[in-house]
Amino acid sequence: MVFFKKSVSPTLLAEREQILSLFKGCDVNNDGKLSKDEVKAAFRKLKSRFPGFRTKRAFKAADKNGDGVISEAELDELVDYVLDCYEGNVALRLTK
Ligand SMILES: [Ca+2]
Ligand SMILES: [Ca+2]
User: Fold this and answer.
1) pTM of the full predicted structure?
2) Which of 13, 46, 32 lies closest to 75, judged by CA?
3) Span from the CA of 33 to the centroid of ligand 1 (angstroms)
């Protein structure tokens, strides 16, 4: 049995899933970590007008140990950052 916080809507959960699978698809060398180029590719797929800027901000927010890659443990923070930017229209951005 899984309990969700009341504030988490099904839509938001669906968006988290979409962003997660987007990032996993951008891990082109399959090392389980996201480099700056890989994150930038994800922002391009999200139709970001400033993928370089978004990538920089995303690493500031999510790369807690400062090693220049987003590991599995840091992925949640990265997803949070993307949701901060695009919550409510993730699906729209990915389908167009
Ligand atoms: Ca990688
Ligand atoms: Ca890191």
Assistant:
1) 0.89
2) 32
3) 4
Ligand nearest to the backbone CA of 35: 1
- Interval between CA 21 and ligand 1 midpoint (Å): 14
Angle made by CA atoms 32, 68, 19, in degrees to the nearest 5: 50
Report how far ligand 1's centroid is from the alpha carbon of 24 (Å): 9
**Average pLDDT for residues 38-48, to the nearest whole number?**
98
Distance between Cα 26 and ligand 2 center (Å): 16
Residue 59: closest CA among 71, 47, 49, 48? 71
What domains are defined for the chain? Answer: 11-95 (1.10.238.10)
Question: Measured between alpha carbons, how far is 84 from 77 in angstroms, rounded to an integer?
Answer: 10
- Phi and psi torsions of 9, nearest 5°: -85, 155
Beta-strand ranges (E) seen in 1-96 are none
